[in-house]
Write a structure and sequence with these properties.
Blueprint (H helix, E strand, L loop, with lengths): L4 H4 L9 H8 L2 E6 L4 E3 L7 E7 L2 E5 L2 E6 L4 E3 L14 E4 L3 E7 H10 L1 H14 L2 E2 L5 H10 L1 H6 L2
Parallel strand pairs: 6-9
Antiparallel strand pairs: 1-8, 2-7, 3-6, 3-8, 4-5, 4-7
Protein name: Cyclic nucleotide-binding domain-containing protein
GO molecular function: voltage-gated potassium channel activity
Pfam family, one: cNMP_binding
Length: 157
């Protein structure tokens, strides 16, 4: 669990039991991106929620920058529906070298089934913790959360 402490210290996980956190940690992986590399393309099947450990990424739709993401940001989608495939609503491209931790949505669903008492709390809170919601159909929700981020709103001034 120590290797995954960055992602597991997010507010979304603060009410999870120790056993739940251990189970989640088994599904957390590390990824790296180089400048100019696309992490996701619009219309891709979203496989994971990503936590930015270091570096900067931009969220683009039709070549328009919607968000700049950095250390501490969480991107991905809620698990509100039982859709077997979640399509992304934007591109995510690295601006700098990036270290990311991610948890696969399949593994996340498995753990939430094992811990139903935490699953309802997770479902209620994920919208507040996602810096940008990449779920197709959540365009305005993603932008709304982005606009409320104090760190990000300073960058636009």
């Amino acid at each position: 669990m120590h290797l995954n402490k960055d992602i597991l210290q997010l507010p979304i996980f603060e009410t999870a039991s120790r056993g739940c956190l251990r189970s989640l940690s088994l599904h957390i992986k590390t990824s790296f991106c180089t400048p100019g590399e696309y992490l996701l393309r619009q219309g891709d099947a979203l496989q994971a929620n990503y936590f930015v450990c270091s570096g900067s990424l931009e969220v683009l739709r039709d070549s328009v920058v919607l968000a700049i993401l950095g250390k501490g940001d969480l991107i991905g989608a809620d698990l509100a529906s039982r859709d077997p495939v979640i399509k992304t609503n934007a591109d995510v491209k690295a601006l700098t070298y990036c270290d990311l931790q991610y948890i696969g949505l399949r593994g996340l669903r498995e753990v939430l089934q094992l811990y139903p008492e935490y699953a309802s709390k997770f479902a209620a809170d994920i919208h507040q913790d996602l810096t940008f919601n990449l779920r197709e159909g959540s365009e305005m929700e993603g932008l709304g959360r982005f606009a409320r981020s104090p760190r990000l709103s300073q960058a636009s001034q």
